[in-house]
Specification:
alpha+beta; 163 residues; 2 domains; Immunoglobulin-like; 36% strand; rod-shaped
């Protein structure tokens, strides 16, 4: 093995110092660089709520009377929903037995065009809610409607309540 002379030691020292400086610069650049770019995110889609309104079996309607409106809300979304208003959604129908007996003109409707509510339905669950005295029956109902259970189509407005 050959010994390095003075000139060889100097060249080797300069090369080692240069290597340290270059590596330090690369390390500094690696930790301090900023960047920008673009990405893609896909928003989930909302599933329509399923709503079913019914008259309260424990408080049957009679001509001129009121009763509770029971609303079942099925939320199949992966986020909670807050319902803020309800409104009529179509024609009210009587149960099959009363309809077969002649209950065609029910005289039943929701007491207001817009009911304000504040219902929270957790994700992927079914919520059952009641609107006290939310239904009324007019004197125009058929006699065959006495004692019937009514299906009341409803529409709801609301929003995601996810935080």
């Amino acid at each position: 093995m050959r010994k390095l002379d003075r000139r060889g030691k100097a060249i080797l020292s300069v090369a080692a110092a240069a290597a340290v400086i270059v590596n330090a610069g690369v390390a500094w650049a690696y930790w301090t660089l900023d960047g920008s770019g673009s990405g893609v995110a896909v928003a989930g889609s909302a599933v329509e709520l399923k709503l079913q309104g019914r008259s309260d079996d424990s408080a049957p309607l009679y001509p001129g009377g009121t009763s509770n409106l029971t609303v079942t809300v099925t939320n199949q979304n992966n986020f909670p929903i807050r319902i803020t208003t309800l409104s009529p959604g179509g024609a009210v129908t009587a149960d099959d037995a009363h309809r077969d007996a002649g209950c065609r003109s029910t005289g039943v409707d929701i007491r207001a065009e817009l009911l304000k509510v504040d219902w929270e339905v957790p994700k992927n669950t079914i919520g059952v809610f009641s609107v006290p005295d939310g239904l009324r029956m007019t004197n125009a109902s058929d006699s065959a409607c006495q004692g019937a259970t009514f299906t009341i189509p409803v529409q709801a407005n609301g929003q995601s309540s996810a935080t």
